[in-house]
Protein 1
Amino acid sequence: MKKILLLGSTGSIGVNTLSVIKEFSEEFEVTGLTVNGNIGLLSEQIEEFHPKTVVVRDAAKAEELKKLLKAPAEVLSGLEGLIEITCRGDYDIFVSSLVGFAGLAPTIEAIKLCKRIALANKETLVAAGEIVTRLCEEYNAELLPIDSEHSAIFQSIVGESKKEIKKLILTASGGPFLNKSVGELKHVTVEEALNHPNWKMGNKITIDSATMMNKGLEVIEAHWLFNLPKERIETLIHPQSIIHSMVEFIDSSIKAQLSLPDMKIPIQYALTYPRRLKSSFVETNFPKIQKLTFFEPDFVKFNCLKLAYEAIGSGGTAPCTLNAANEFAVDLFLKKRIEFLQIPEIIDFALNKIEIKQAPDIETIFENDRRTREYLNKVYN
């Protein structure tokens, strides 16, 4: 049986990962779970999956959990606990479904232990893609994507020569504001932005989908995962979210991975690769779907996507700044302190104010993230 350490077990990816593990209980066992503060759901997961160790980032919540527990489990807390459970190495597969920059440090530790990294944390590759991919090669660690788009690309190139790839085509649903004008976006509410038409996700990633920054982060992620320049990574609006992404080859053939929207499919592939196991998740009925439609993205309306492409071109610490500024701005929007269209304005402001450093080491990445957030905090708080 493969042992799994799951970071972010109470989020949407974490819950879906545990569903996959439950479906294939003869294949996998959970050795560790981590959460930010949802100890109610975590306590239920502990009773069902019996991990040896759990981590709660919120120290006060960790103490609360110790009093609630019915099943035996060691409880650690804080960033120190997160690093400790990762460094112990009592697992075969490291699943990172943490939200934001917080996923970077433990992922690097898991890479150094030569583990399979099943990555759902976009920000790890956005902020430090050059470093992370180099470390994976150095330590012979597998890096397999969980994002449906990157999983689709990965599945499409299995057995193919990377030299024969012409371009990648990342699909996007367009989010809840696909049919709104820029003018209509000025006063959209947090509740409207959180109403995604196809996917049920956490608040931060749902807002990223509404701004299309989610797709921008995925473009940067694809740049590092598949070692292709931004000019060979396209984005395409596909409202039905059936085609999860495509690869065009030099002979003009195009391969794609299709299914109804269900994150359990790419999660299962990352856990079982190179095998495919029969599951009971979803069945895709094309006569019922009837049609698939496509549109080019509007880079004026979705300026976040444009900023992401520009950050790749700038290189160095620019994507790290983009990510930190986006996390900062989305947090302000969720707290109803800024308007929706101020999100890309804040990101653009940061990219123009924070110095870009080329060929950064990991210390420079962490310093850049801290400096960006501190600067924006002084300006906007």
Protein 2
Amino acid sequence: MWPNADETRELLLQAKEGDNEAVDRLMSRHRQALRRMVELRLDRALARRVDASDIVQDALLEASRRLASYLQKPSMPFHLWLRHLARDRIVDAHRRHRVAHRRTVDRERPLQGSAFGSHSSLELINQLSAAGLTPAAAAIRHELEQRFHTALETLDDSDRELLVMRHFEQLSNQEVATALNLSQPAASMRYLRALRRLRLRIADQDGESRA
């Protein structure tokens, strides 16, 4: 999902030397991935009033303003820094537009809308179905995908966020640990527990369907 890290590092070096064109290329090449990251986290009600492109643009403008400071002392990889800026703006948008409904701003319900590509969904579905929870026949694949999304929606925010970061943003365990300020073993353990809970939710649905 995110641009090649080696090319990003090269552009960062050029930007640090004062190359404005490198800065423009740096922001431009991350725009699509950042937009996808935002779309994954805007619920449908908010998405009707807030365009993901506006949030991305605000985040990129802020990144441009703060880039010199970041380059002096980068605290995390560039793409994680960008998504941190964008996430702050998502939270701000929820505060502005959903406060009247008394809704918790951190519950972003990422599975709404069409932001989730089928490739990432099916990749995780295959991993789960390999445990024998449901038949692997192609005829029930669509039904399984429906159960998968329903089950993922029922998870706690922290579990769902970990699975989104790993399987839809395609972040490594190390990147997740950095983004969430966790140790790598802690991030790995939380991910495995989230995956286990998701598997159980799908199994519960399968049992109800058979009943």
Protein 3
Amino acid sequence: MSKGVNPFQDSVFSLPAEDFALLQDAIAIRLNKEKYGSSSFEELAEQYGRKSVCPSCGSHESALNGKTPDGKQRYICNDCGQIYTILSDSIFHSTNKSFDTWVRYLVLMTFNVPLEMTETLCSISHPTAMLWRRKIFATVDGYQNHLVLHGRIWIDETYVFDSTVLHEDGFKKKRGLSNNLLCIVVAIDTFGNSYAEICGHGRPSSTRIYKTLRNHIHSGSTIVHDGEKAHAFLIQELHCTEEKYIADNSPEYLKKMALINNMCAWLKRYLYRFIGMNTEYMPSYLNWFVYLYRVKSAKEKWPTISRILRHLILTETTFKRKRP
């Protein structure tokens, strides 16, 4: 074969549109099989050992009950008689898009691209793109609830504009750390565990900082911070020691606080991609940010998309589009 000559080019160009689409599907199936070990959600469920769960009563006790018209295995619940499939209690229940389309969407989600780009590159509608984002977010709801940082822990606050105030009568943008700004407390430890949570509006009080972080920092840890007075009560109550570096942009401050400053910058860049979001969903965006930070930190051990796929297929949760 001559260099640069593709022997399949003429054959591919001669294919009718319908056959060309089938060829594309076959190529996608092979690529996904080679990369992820599966080319469908049913195969993925089998690969990672997902158990059948009754979507009605949550029972794991079931029996086989034939196949669906498209060949998927059905189960019948031994407790309530509900008939379902392996995906009935997952975010992939009733999806009519291909595994390959979902994988492309997930890749884009890991780069936190705007919805318009996912719509174009995945050939899906805006409502579908939004629905899928919320389905994925639903699998990490509560992800941070049980996170506890320990050892040496950096803490700080970052601020983003609360777009909901734009709809208030007499809105006037204020300067400084006003109540127009959402305060987000950010923390990270030496083991790469991170935490990000809303802490009200404007500059936080000692009480707000304590309530936000008290269940997420191990007692006796070392708190590295910028000397904010509101941190003192938390440090005292959790019997922590402190390392304090005043935010004066000195070489020592920039070096010692680089880890938390970088994380705050990453978080702000992430949130700025979704300017105008309803702040009702902010906790979901923060959960995804922290989850993705952890997954990407371990990408050398476990490829990012493979790990996310495993998480999604094993999570027992559903999300339905809200009807007006």
